[in-house]
DNA sequence: TGTAATGATACGTACAGACTATCAATCAAC
DNA sequence: GTTGATTGATAGTCTGTACGTATCATTACA
């Protein structure tokens, strides 16, 4: 059986007239009769009552008519959707993000979703190291992450820079003052940090920052993900140095202070697998480029 | 596009190897490559990433793969069901019945349903006259009805004979006695009868029965359907003469008495449209024939 | 560097589906 | 009854295309 049989069958069932159906199909009547006969033979069921003057569907034919129309409709929708996925108008896009959905990331996601309503964005929170791996293995299509980035297999570009701030429990003695803090004041404080294996760039930058201020952070606690780190700070377990992106959502239990004399910032990058990136991923990357700040020279 | 394309595509998507897929399809590899290329061209989407050493589905291909399998499954089920409807193993069967589903009718329906679980029996209560019309117009496939039957267009045979009984309100003076009643005792009683136009055979037989007993029934009320008639009797509106089939289900408000010296009975017939009876209707008729009483000579 | 594996390409062929012509059956008009 | 129109089926021919064989290009691996 071929789709031709179904197409012809539907035409005859709709017109209940071989001649007119043939005309609609742009073929002559004899081959139409033949194909219908073939279909009946193959299915093993008479589909039409035919006298020389009238054509009517049998009960079996009526059933097949309904089914055939549904099948052709499904096929039509399937091919259209397939084409859309190819062009990147539709599909699923797995997106990784490190800690919090900063307003910068949300703006990009929102804008893309608005223009591509058929696209399903699936968000995965994972560390920068995990994103490198997931992008390489195509478990995610897009990553919002911090260095290091495996430039061999991944394409990437810089999006935003977020300065560092110190996160203190509100109950902490240093939390009273709103002025920028000197990092040397943090000497001996218990630090909460992500594991270096998960966020090497972030980790090293903070260490360097502290070293420059003449202190060596006393890491008492490791925690995965900014939200977890901040929860621990809120609980009074220790202090941490986080990006202003994480500090966007204020919490009562946490007090943020800028760092005096340091304009260090952590870079947020967008990355994708540069080999066989899905069309959707490519679209996303293109759309995201618009959000690069100061791109006008 | 033809089903061939989908079949070939599914084979390649399952094997992710053109050579092996071709072998399974019993064709050689080159035409398989061609057909897949055609499919991609027609849909307007790349379906496989092909290097010379590996074949992988694109996101678009993965979507089409799922859809194509579903479509092939639907098609398979549709053709099987169509064949079943043709042979009478499945389908819908509209059955008409006059008044009540007597135990005789129920036995036939039950037996048929047991042997043909894929068949949906749709019951329609309608008078014998309506059934004649509905059978001719194919609104129903099978009728359980009383004469007259239009032998021109309908095939039919006799099933059961149900003797007549008198139905009295329990409060009626004549309802005390359990012995057979003489019809002459009913002189002057208000009769409830179906309209003659709907149940001519039944109507005329009762009139003849009464006439033989020397009375002319005083028809005060007409009602469509035995259940309606019996409800009116129960309400004390009048009396009626009904078949023992209707009397099968006893009600407290109604008292039935046999009729003395009359072995008249109303015949229940099974009828169908003898032109292009649906295969299912034919099966039903054949199955019902087993229930003709005294068929052994 | 040579060999095996794999999908794409080139080209000839056979068959199936399409066309034209015609037939058979039915219905309607007179 | 007879004739003409309508309609689906059949017969015979032709053509497009799906398939097969042979071969190539590329890649992986020994």
From TrEMBL, chains A, B:
This protein's GO CC annotations: protein-DNA complex
Keywords attached to this entry? DNA-binding, Transcription, Transcription regulation
The keyword Disulfide bond belongs to this UniProt entry's keyword annotation: no
Where, if anywhere, are coiled coils annotated?
A: none
Q: Which GO terms describe its molecular function?
A: DNA binding; DNA-binding transcription factor activity
Domain HTH lysR-type spans what residues?
1-58
Superkingdom, taxonomy of origin: Bacteria
For the keyword Heme, the answer is: no
UniProt-listed Gene3D superfamilies: Periplasmic binding protein-like II (3.40.190.10), Winged helix-like DNA-binding domain superfamily/Winged helix DNA-binding domain (1.10.10.10)
| Family per similarity comment | Belongs to the LysR transcriptional regulatory family.
What is this protein identified as?
A: Transcriptional regulator, LysR family
